[in-house]
Design brief:
The structure holds 2 protein chains of 2 kinds. By secondary structure, chain A is an alpha+beta fold. Helices cover 35% and strands 15% of the residues of chain A. Chain B contains 17 helices and no strands. Classes of the chains: A alpha+beta, B mainly alpha.
């Protein structure tokens, strides 16, 4: 396999048969209990009216965003974005504030609510299987998928592949690759035959949603300094004004007294 | 000549029986906190992966910080604008702020997954994180409030020299305190900036930090009125009604600016159609605006109400209830996390619609009780309402 510069997944909802083998594979590979799985599959149910019925299922997974909101939000920098794609969580510095769970528009990070201080309660989410992808293997969920609904590879190549698939079957697919631009792009790309919001995916602009708060944060230090200067100026001005007034009244009283 | 304008309340309430109730509530909170530290957050709360932040964040962090704003409002009035007549209100406001912030930190220690690592914020800093800014500001501001309040303790200990020395160098700390307050009061609003898909559009706006700061000023004034009025009922002291009346005159102005900013933003952003069409969200919005802004604006505009001890107290309570509802809306009621029906399988979070558990509320109540108890003890043992040493009251 050639070296991958930007790891990514492609999920094709038209191929998913809701077998949930990916959940089991992830659980086995990463040694996590099934009730804390990092990947979960939801059947959307049957949509439409007879005879035009459709059913779909969605594999939810860390989106490995290009501009991760969890990383932007984390106060202690427990998240990092690897240049080659994966968003990595580091439990060593995590303080357990759970702001990443609020920040993530996809609701991906999960927390150990059942663990006390001694056991150590941490966040968990998909790691992109580094023990596999850096040894020439596919991530566990991809390798196990029986219908190739989940694929893995170079991000650019997967986008080309997805476009070709839409072009070949325009009747089958919605003409959009979710994750190509959403939230500044993600490394988990999705093709679907039913509208993306019905799959539970939020409508996100191409501009990363962390942009607004990051801009505000950039202004913090300059604002603090100028606000401090303004307040000092006002305080000094008021003080001088009051002093002046006092002296004047004192002087007036003096002149009155001498009269 | 010095006029004594304070008003003596017609009846007084006794603080002593309340002490036992407060101690009992603190004990209950302590036991629950121990269970939480031993077994995790799950067993004592209804928090889930769908709702990672709940009552503790809305009440202890958002409300706690908001009602601590009296300290910086009063410090700005007395020191920066040199309105020295407000001096008698300064010490209790600074103490309320100080205790409020300690309560915030204590509550966060219960809420954090790793409370023993809270100091990591000082060594592992991520400069894009709003929460980091709040953490650093709250830690620094606690230090500033301690310095602003220290003269009272020094006077209580009869260390006049120290009190005098501190008083001499108080100004830089006051300015630092106001700057830090501006930063973290507004940053509480910025916390939600990263959730445009979750916070309902009537509340989500890029100017949330500005709205939070403006509303913090009126909350601060409301708190000063509330806490002066209550302490005059419980402790042997008069009520500086003439000062509260004067302070009350500024409330409609602050609220008016807030109202204007809020509605102009909603219309410019094109969210006006949500005002009447979004069911519960519209109801919450209008309740917050009516109770927190419009009704108090009308009440505080009336001179007759401002001049009555009961009138001004009730107006302040109405204002605070409405504004606290705003903080709850922004941090909880109007936040809709990723669609739980399709998104989260039930085993990942059985509490899809969050409502706090009894033990969550009891922890907050216990921490709040501790604050009231410490305030009561300070009123008894420290020169909190004492103007014998006006030359360096609360750092003067």
């Amino acid at each position: 396999m050639t070296e991958i510069k930007h790891h990514a997944y492609l999920f094709d909802a038209t191929r998913c048969i809701d077998c949930r083998a990916c959940m089991v594979a992830c659980s086995v590979e990463n040694n996590i209990a099934m009730d804390k799985t990092r990947i979960w599959v939801a059947g959307i149910g049957i949509k439409g009216e007879y005879p035009n019925l459709e059913r779909g299922s969605m594999v939810y997974h860390c989106m490995h965003c290009e501009h991760p909101d969890c990383m932007s939000a984390c106060p202690v920098g427990a998240y990092t974005k690897a240049e080659d794609g994966p968003v990595i969580y580091n439990p060593e510095v995590c303080i357990g504030c759970r702001y990443c769970m609020n920040a993530c528009p996809f609701g991906v990070p999960h927390f150990d609510y059942d663990k006390g201080i001694i056991d150590g309660a941490f966040i968990d989410k998909c790691t992109f299987c580094p023990q596999r992808i850096y040894n020439g293997q596919e991530p566990a969920c991809v390798q196990t998928c029986p219908t190739d609904a989940l694929e893995y590879g170079e991000r650019d190549e997967l986008i080309v592949k997805a476009r070709a698939r839409i072009a070949a079957h325009p009747d089958r697919y919605i003409d959009h690759i979710y994750g190509e631009f959403e939230n500044g792009g993600t490394s988990y790309l999705i093709l679907s035959h039913i509208p993306f919001n019905e799959l539970g995916l939020p409508d996100l602009p191409a501009e990363p949603i962390s942009e607004v708060s990051e801009k505000v944060m950039e202004m913090t230090i300059p604002f603090a300094l100028s606000w401090g200067a303004v307040l000092s100026g006002v305080a000094a001005g008021v003080h001088l004004y009051n002093k002046n007034k006092e002296e004047k009244t004192a002087a007036e009283e003096n002149t009155e007294a001498t009269k | 000549m010095k006029l004594n304008l304070t008003v003596q309340p017609r009846f007084r309430l006794n603080f002593r029986p309340l002490v036992w109730v407060l101690l009992a509530l603190m004990g209950i909170a302590f036991v629950i906190a121990m269970i939480r530290f031993a077994n995790g957050i799950g067993p004592v709360t209804n928090l889930s992966n769908a709702y990672p932040w709940g009552f503790w964040i809305s009440f202890d962090l958002f409300t706690g910080v908001a009602i601590g704003s009296g300290a910086f409002v009063m410090a700005a009035i007395v020191y920066i604008f040199e309105l020295k007549e407000f001096q008698p209100l300064l010490r209790p406001s600074v103490l309320t702020g100080f205790l409020g912030y300690i309560m915030v930190v204590v509550a966060l220690l219960v809420d954090l997954g790793h409370p023993e690592r809270i100091w990591y914020m000082m060594i592992h800093t991520n400069h894009t994180s709003v929460l980091l800014e709040i953490g650093i500001c709250v830690m620094s501001y606690l230090t500033v409030l301690a310095i602003e309040f220290a003269p009272v303790i020094f006077e209580g200990l009869k260390w006049e020299k120290w009190a005098h020395l501190l008083h001499k160098f108080i100004m830089p700390f006051v300015i630092l305190g106001v700057v830090l307050s501006t930063l973290h009061q507004s940053s509480l609003g910025s916390l939600l900036l990263i959730e445009p898909t979750k916070l309902f559009p009537l509340w989500w706006t890029p100017i949330l930090p500005i709205e939070f700061f403006i509303s913090a000023i009126s909350i601060g004034m409301g708190m000063i009125i509330l806490e002066s009025s209550l302490s005059s009922l419980y402790f042997k002291r008069g009520l500086e009604l003439h000062l509260l009346e004067k302070l009350g005159r500024a409330v409609p102005v602050a609220l008016g600016i807030y109202l204007l900013v809020k509605f102009v933003e909603i219309f410019i952003a094109g969210d006006a159609h949500f005002l009447f069409t979004s069911g519960l969200m519209s109801l919450l919005f209008w309740t917050e605006i009516l109770v927190g802004v419009i009704i108090p604006m009308a009440l505080f505009s009336s001179k007759r109400i401002r001049q009555s001890a009961n009138g001004i107290l009730i107006s302040a309570i109405i204002l605070l209830v409405g504004m606290i509802l705003n903080r709850f809306n922004v941090s909880w009621f109007a936040v809709q996390h990723a669609d739980p029906i399709t998104y989260l399988p039930t085993f990942m979070g059985n509490n899809i619609h969050y409502w706090p558990s009894l033990s969550e509320v009891l922890v907050s109540v216990g921490i709040f009780s501790a604050g009231i108890l410490v305030f009561g003890m300070a009123a008894k043992y420290l020169p909190l309402f004492d103007n014998e040493h006006p030359q360096h009251a609360a750092g003067d």
